[in-house]
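Subject: sequence -> structure tokens, single chain

Hey, anyone have a minute? Need the predicted structure for the following. Not urgent.
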Amino acid sequence: MTARALRPEGSLDWRLLLTPRWVFATLLVIAAVAVMIRLGIWQLDRLEQRRAVNAQVRSMAALPALDLNQAWPTADLTVMDGRAATVTGVYVPEEEVLLRNQAWNDLPGYHVLTPLRIEGSQAVVLVNRGWIPLEDGGQSLAKYAEPGTVTVSGWIQAGQSEPRRGGRPDPELAPGQARLEAWNFVNLERIALQVSGELLPVYLLAAPVEGAVLLQRSAPEVDLSEGPHMGYAVQWFLFASMLGVGYPFYVRNQLKRNSTAH
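Reply:
Had a minute. Here:
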């Protein structure tokens, strides 16, 4: 008596699921569901990180301006990204550098990053003084100089140790080259190597000044939304549910078709 004869009429032969084809397909579906669930969890983690950053930005924005002349070196400036600050000192124009790929009203150019020696100390803070046109980048920046003792207001900004996604790394110094004049991002650790004095671990984005015409400045653009992470998480969980629930129905239909065909 054959196995076919032992099975009741219309019953499904579940043993087919043990064939290599179905074992491979089932393992593939299980792996896909697991990956989708993991991606959903990852998006929820990203959401929590975004919320933590937003909370940090809001807390810094609510604080009064920090006087860097009084706060350094006792304050931990690395946790004050986005806080308003002021500093008094003298610029060191011979050590300033340019930040590439900066735009103003859709015009290409640079940002001018100038070390400022903090009054009463040997500490130096790098100040992003604003935007200049692309054609001025290869010329003397003397016309943008701000000589003498100055007081600068702005916002504390964290530097970068590596480029953001899609960004280009800064080149290494060529043999015999003492310094880089233009940078792709504000790498404070490397810039400190060509600045005299103790460079602070953050830099200052200078605030716009009423009536100033030398350099174009704007306040930092801060996105306090939660981004698309919740939507992405829901999508991944939905895809996992559809595949996890739909696959058994697909298997049953295929087994029914196989049973009918035989």
